[in-house]
């Protein structure tokens, strides 16, 4: 029972923090452009505003269109259940491994893509088709990276992987981990529709991918979709933070104090990674759509070389 | 110590992959500069180590030369050449970039299969670095094959040279000084000649596409 | 006497199939009665078959032997053995047949008065019976006969709608390719007899030397791969499956191509035994290429049935990946991993027959309602055929390996078996394994994309033609058939241990090494319905499903509390203010797959052509845009081969076929002399 409550607390941390991370990234970008930028909490205001608005549903749309926001949200939140915020608490009894995590996210994406086709809008089809391509191309690198880490940990359980990485101490100074880390960064950029792949800030039909799929949504549906995207982003950031920048080994004491410290450290690492993502975003431009395969190939060879360094070359 | 070299060898390998994934000539030069800086760093670490343990300054000198030559002088030279030619971007490839990257990846695997047969190198710690740095040579070669423009050829040549240098460094932890200097002199002459040639080709044919060299044959 | 013993049930099942076939002939003047009696017979027979298989698996009996009559032909016995492996495939066959037969009651109604329904049902029941015999034959010659009967009957069914030229051509290609495979099988059986002097499958294969084994493996592999339709022997599949009627394609894709998996296990795995690692490696490579190419070709396909056919190639590839890993593991004496991989592979066989059966039935319903197989003419069917749409979506989610469905379980186990296979040591194998992980991931993601396209373009949006606009929901029987399959997909996805427990007995009986002990957990509310012991790899689809439902309810409640009840306005789709949208402005199937076509252009050899008519290039009077893709395998393997064979035959013809009777007599004479000489010497 305690374990379940622990688990729910971790879920709550992710759910509450998610919109703020979006704000953090936007703020860091604004800072680098010498703008003031929107407040860090802007996304919370937006979400509340959207929830209180009427929504417009296309005449063409079927039940899929209305069900999708709920499916996307619940699969993403269920995925968040699988990701421990801290490894200090005993292994989460929730059965699910990292493969399940990515397939849950894929379920959400499946529905997002078909809901985009549901309204018969050209933009929706465009976004859906592009998303299908990007996600298919990035998928091999995801699986190869998580397999590499999983094999080192001897398990595909996320908790187990994080504990192993915490024992490694300073992963980024080892070839295998730096390579998989870089691969994961590209994966995050691609999965969360960030700049080299997609531009979250634009509504230009030539460039948009994720936004094109959400174009027909409004009101509470839109709020749910935007929120799910933020949660998904935080899930991936959490995964990277706890795998590649582990900090739980530094905490000397257990108990609730240790837990709070661990969450505080977690928060610091999330801020750090958000800043890294912001830097990655401002230092590149959005790629031409057909240059994305280059990026995907790069992510793939990064993860593949990581595997090679560890399992073939023995380091 | 060794773990730093592992890391550096991986990063050097990675930089050559990034080189393959680029198609802007300016990015070639930038990536080459980064790769050379990484090599200089490797040589620097090795140099300090040998200074501390044996008191020899050789490798540190080599490191200084690398910084002067490969990080500062040659990229600048290349930039100058770049300013003189019209073509800034490689457009048509024989194969597309993702495929090139995957092929390069296969080259790394191939290198492993080849190098792991050499018994004197199969001591565990040396293998990884040698495989990574040897792959840089092959990737540089392959880069030359896959690029049509003359500047790409030059960069490819330089990457091969980088690869040879790093391989030698990792497998021997410091070559005789005179050998290093010899290689550098060779290289600098080659680069100067090529730099002049590129401008010449550009003037004569209004293009630096080396496919046009085929027109020369009788 | 126990009438519910597996052997009586199996007899009963076979007799009922025969009875159904006879009933179909008797009632040939009354199409309705004919359909109902024949399909009712098949339903009953399949229930009996399933009961027989399940009883055998649960009873723990090793095998049952049926010998209806003594054969007088030397070396040939007409006897059937049902062991656990046969029983498992029989179960797949029976479950699928049950649903397809229910579906057929509705589906064949549109043949009434137009075609010879009696013939159709006769072929249908005997086709299923022949597959049943393939799974139970225990003598190579008898197996071979059943195999041939199956091939010929399925050929007749493929060309059943023979008035269309393309169906006849597809049939021709099919029969040629399948006989090519049969030829290889025949050589393999000959070799078997040559070495062991018996066609009995339970005999030992110890005396076969190494070369003989390798040769037999190659011949078996080519022969069975042709039936499986894996790349590069796949060319018949994308033509034959679309040509057949909807229910027949479901059977062909759902179970017929799996006879190849059965054959490989029966003849290679059990008979020859796996000792050489390269066998597994070859199967793995075939599986990887099939998975990627199959799904790539499926993705760009606009014909909905062809798309499914290509997707079958992909799924056979995944099954072959599992088989390859199992073979490799057994050759390297790693029995536990081998058993796990075999479990994954066979489970995927079962799952694939469920969801692909459901999808082919769904596509059959679309064709029934709209009379078109072209995706570009469909759209908006979810409003016109809501029930079909729901079941189709279920099967599509399942084939995309998404979570609460059974496809995910198969994929997860395959990943886990690869995970368990990778160990320090053999570098080449490790690289092969990690590449197969990448291949599985790529093909899984592409399959999802493919079914987003199939479902999204055909069921959602606005109807693109009158065919789709005036479609009506199909009869209840058809929906029932595909509904059961979709429901089973969900059920076995949530409670994977139901099929896994049965399967584990199969694995235990053929490898002596069960997996169910390793896959811990209980049936219902247990924490870990699927857990591999030794590491902490576990998933609980049921629990995830429940938490998804709870979280969705939470979202609904929170929105209600925070936002209050808000109005929902119906309004047109955003049209940029230009006026009403027409169906032609929607994304088409071709457009959807265009990015992929560009990215993987070397595999498609696509070319496009834009023709403008009129004086001004910016204001053309009409535009014509053609886009073509070519199958690389046909272009670079089959067509050159065909050209070469034709040229060679033309050349040789003139040498052998002189036209003189005396020469022909001389050939026979020389042949007789040579045989007599062989009799003396050899």
Give the structure's gist in a few sentences.
The complex is a heterotrimer of chains A (315), B (218) and C (682). Chain A is mainly α and 315 residues long.
- What is the end-to-end distance of chain A? 41 Å
Mean pLDDT of chain A: 89
Shape category of chain A:
globular
Which word captures the global form of chain B?
globular
Explain what this protein looks like in three dimensions.
The complex is a heterotrimer of chains A (315), B (218) and C (682). Chain A is built from eleven helices and one strand; from the N terminus they run ααβααααααααα. Chain A is an all-alpha fold and 315 residues long. Chain A has one domain (2-312). The model of chain A has no long low-confidence stretch (mean pLDDT 89). By secondary structure, chain B is mostly helical. In chain B, helix 1 runs antiparallel to helix 2 (25-53). Chain B starts with a helix and ends in a 13-residue tail after the last helix. The longest helix of chain C has 36 residues, at 335-370.
SSE topology sketch:
The complex is a heterotrimer of chains A (315), B (218) and C (682).
Chain A: H1 2-32, H2 42-51, E1 55-58, H3 63-82, H4 98-118, H5 122-153, H6 158-168, H7 175-191, H8 210-214, H9 219-244, H10 255-283, H11 292-312
Helix pairs in contact in A: 1-9, 1-10, 2-9, 3-4, 3-9, 4-5, 5-6, 5-7, 5-11, 7-9, 7-11, 9-10
Chain B: H1 2-21, H2 25-53, H3 58-84, H4 97-115, H5 124-146, H6 150-172, H7 177-205
Helix pairs in contact in B: 1-2, 1-5, 2-3, 2-6, 3-7, 4-5, 5-6, 6-7
Chain C: H1 6-26, H2 31-59, E1 63-66, E2 80-83, H3 84-107, H4 117-136, H5 140-158, H6 165-196, H7 210-228, H8 237-243, H9 246-254, H10 259-272, H11 277-299, H12 304-331, H13 335-370, H14 381-384, H15 386-399, H16 406-421, H17 427-459, H18 466-469, H19 476-494, H20 497-511, E3 519-520, E4 530-532, E5 538-539, H21 541-563, E6 568-571, H22 589-599, H23 601-604, E7 607-613, E8 622-628, H24 632-656, H25 661-681
Antiparallel strand pairs in C: 1-2, 3-4, 4-5, 7-8
Helix pairs in contact in C: 1-2, 1-4, 2-3, 2-4, 3-4, 3-9, 3-13, 3-19, 3-20, 4-5, 5-6, 6-7, 6-8, 7-10, 8-9, 8-12, 9-13, 11-12, 11-17, 12-13, 12-16, 12-17, 13-15, 13-16, 13-19, 13-20, 15-17, 15-19, 16-17, 16-19
């Amino acid at each position: 029972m305690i374990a379940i409550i622990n688990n729910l607390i971790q879920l709550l941390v992710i759910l509450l923090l998610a919109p703020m991370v979006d704000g953090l990234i936007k703020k860091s970008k604004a800072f680098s452009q010498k703008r003031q930028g929107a407040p860090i909490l802007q996304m919370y205001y937006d979400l509340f505003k959207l929830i209180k608005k009427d929504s417009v549903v296309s005449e063409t749309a079927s039940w899929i269109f209305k069900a999708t926001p709920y499916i996307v949200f619940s699969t993403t939140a269920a995925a968040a259940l699988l990701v421990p915020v801290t490894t200090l608490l005993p292994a989460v009894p929730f059965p699910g491994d990292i493969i399940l995590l990515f397939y849950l996210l894929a379920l959400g994406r499946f529905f997002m893509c078909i809901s985009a086709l549901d309204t018969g809008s050209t933009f929706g089809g465009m976004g859906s088709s592009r998303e299908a391509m990007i996600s298919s191309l990035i998928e091999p690198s995801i699986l190869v990276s998580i397999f590499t880490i999983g094999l080192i940990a001897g398990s595909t359980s996320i908790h187990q992987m994080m504990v192993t990485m915490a024992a490694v101490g300073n992963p980024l100074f080892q070839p295998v981990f730096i390579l998989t880390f870089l691969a994961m960064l590209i994966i995050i950029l691609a999965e969360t529709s960030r700049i080299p792949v997609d531009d979250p800030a634009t509504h230009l039909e030539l460039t948009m991918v994720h936004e094109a799929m959400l174009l027909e949504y409004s009101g509470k549906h839109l709020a749910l979709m935007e929120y799910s995207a933020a949660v998904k982003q935080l899930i991936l950031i959490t995964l990277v933070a706890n795998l590649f920048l582990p900090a739980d080994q530094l905490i000397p004491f257990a108990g609730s104090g240790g837990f709070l410290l661990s969450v505080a450290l977690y928060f610091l690492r999330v801020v750090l990674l958000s800043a890294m993502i912001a830097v990655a975003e401002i230092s590149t431009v959005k790629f031409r759509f057909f240059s994305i395969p280059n990026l995907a190939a790069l992510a793939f060879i990064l993860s593949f070389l990581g595997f090679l360094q560890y399992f073939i070359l023995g380091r | 110590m060794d773990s730093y070299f592992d890391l550096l060898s991986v990063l050097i390998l990675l930089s050559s992959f990034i080189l393959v994934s680029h198609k802007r000539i300016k990015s070639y030069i930038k990536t080459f500069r980064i790769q050379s800086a990484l090599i200089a760093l490797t040589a620097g670490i090795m140099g300090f180590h040998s200074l501390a343990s044996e008191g020899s300054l050789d490798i540190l000198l080599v490191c200084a030369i690398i910084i002067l030559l490969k990080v500062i002088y040659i990229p600048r030279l290349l930039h100058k050449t770049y300013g003189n030619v019209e073509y800034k971007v490689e457009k048509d490839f024989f194969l597309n970039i993702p495929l090139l990257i995957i092929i390069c990846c296969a080259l790394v695997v191939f290198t492993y299969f080849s190098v792991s047969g050499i018994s004197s190198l199969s001591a565990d710690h040396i293998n990884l670095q040698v495989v990574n740095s040897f792959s840089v040579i092959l990737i540089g070669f392959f880069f030359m094959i896959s690029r049509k423009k003359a500047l790409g050829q030059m960069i490819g040549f330089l990457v091969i040279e980088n690869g040879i240098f790093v391989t030698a460094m990792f497998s021997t932890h410091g070559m005789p000084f005179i050998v290093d200097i010899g290689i550098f002199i060779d290289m600098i002459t080659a680069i100067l000649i090529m730099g002049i040639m590129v401008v010449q080709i550009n003037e004569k044919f209004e293009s630096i596409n080396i496919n046009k060299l085929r027109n020369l044959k009788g | 006497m126990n009438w519910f013993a597996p052997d009586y049930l199996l007899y009963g099942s076979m007799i009922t199939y025969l009875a159904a076939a006879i009933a179909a002939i008797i009632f040939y003047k009354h199409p309705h009665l004919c359909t109902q009696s024949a399909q009712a017979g098949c339903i009953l027979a399949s229930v009996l078959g399933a009961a027989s298989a399940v009883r055998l698996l649960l009873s723990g009996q090793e095998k049952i032997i049926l010998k209806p009559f003594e054969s007088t032909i030397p070396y040939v016995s007409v006897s059937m053995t049902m062991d656990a492996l046969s029983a498992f495939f029989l179960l797949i066959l029976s479950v699928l047949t049950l649903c397809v037969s229910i579906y057929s009651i509705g589906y064949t109604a549109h043949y009434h008065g137009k075609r010879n329904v009696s013939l159709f049902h006769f072929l249908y029941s005997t086709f299923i019976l022949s597959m049943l015999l393939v799974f139970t034959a225990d003598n190579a010659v008898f197996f071979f006969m059943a195999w041939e009967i199956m091939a010929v009957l399925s050929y007749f069914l493929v060309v059943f709608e023979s008035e269309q030229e393309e169906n006849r051509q597809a049939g021709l290609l099919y029969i040629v390719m399948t006989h090519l495979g049969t030829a290889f099988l025949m050589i393999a059986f000959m070799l078997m007899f040559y070495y062991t002097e018996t066609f009995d499958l339970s005999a030992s294969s110890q005396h076969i030397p190494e070369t003989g084994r390798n040769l037999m493996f190659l011949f078996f592999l080519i022969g069975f791969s042709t039936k499986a339709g894996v790349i590069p022997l796949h060319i018949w599949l994308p033509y034959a499956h679309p040509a057949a009627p909807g229910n027949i394609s479901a059977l062909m894709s759902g179970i017929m191509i799996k006879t190849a998996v059965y054959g490989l296990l029966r003849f290679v795995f059990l008979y020859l035994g796996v000792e050489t690692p390269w066998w597994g490696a070859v199967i793995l490579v075939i599986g990887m290429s099939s998975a990627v190419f199959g799904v790539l070709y499926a993705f760009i396909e606009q014909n909905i049935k062809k798309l499914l056919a290509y997707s079958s190639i992909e799924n056979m590839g995944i099954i072959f990946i599992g088989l390859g890993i199992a073979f490799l593991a057994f050759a390297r004496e790693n029995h536990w991993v081998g058993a796990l991989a075999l479990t994954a592979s066979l489970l995927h066989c079962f799952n694939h027959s469920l969801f692909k059966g459901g999808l082919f039935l769904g596509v059959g319903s679309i064709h029934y309602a709209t009379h078109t197989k072209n995706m570009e003419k469909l759209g908006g069917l979810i409003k016109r055929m809501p029930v079909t749409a729901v079941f189709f979506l279920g099967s599509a989610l399942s084939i995309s390996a998404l979570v609460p469905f059974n496809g995910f379980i198969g994929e997860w186990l395959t990943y886990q078996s690869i995970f368990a296979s990778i160990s320090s040591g053999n570098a080449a194998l490790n690289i092969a394994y990690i590449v197969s992980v990448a291949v599985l991931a790529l093909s899984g993601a592409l399959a999802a994309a493919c079914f987003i396209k199939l479902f999204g373009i055909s069921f959602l949006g606005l109807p693109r033609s009158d065919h789709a606009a005036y479609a009506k929901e199909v009869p209840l029987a058809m929906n029932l058939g595909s509904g059961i399959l979709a429901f089973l997909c969900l059920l076995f996805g949530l409670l994977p241990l139901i099929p896994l427990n049965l399967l584990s007995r199969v694995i235990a009986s053929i490898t002596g090494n069960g997996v169910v002990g390793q896959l811990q957990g209980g049936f219902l509310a247990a924490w870990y319905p699927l857990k591999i012991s030794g590491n902490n790899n576990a998933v609980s689809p049921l629990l995830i499903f429940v938490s998804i439902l709870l979280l969705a309810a939470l979202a609904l409640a929170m929105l209600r509390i925070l936002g209050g009840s808000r109005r929902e306005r119906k309004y047109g789709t955003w049209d940029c203010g230009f006026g009403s949208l027409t169906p032609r402005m929607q994304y088409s199937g071709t457009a959807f797959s265009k990015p992929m076509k560009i990215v993987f252009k070397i595999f498609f050899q696509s070319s496009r052509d834009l023709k403008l008519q009129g004086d001004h290039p910016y204001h053309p009077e009409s535009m014509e845009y053609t886009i073509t893709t070519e199958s690389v395998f046909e272009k670079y393997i089959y067509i050159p081969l065909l050209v070469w064979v034709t040229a060679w035959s033309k050349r040789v013809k003139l040498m052998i076929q002189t036209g003189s009777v005396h020469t022909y007599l001389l050939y026979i004479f020389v042949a007789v002399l040579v045989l007599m000489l062989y009799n003396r010497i050899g």
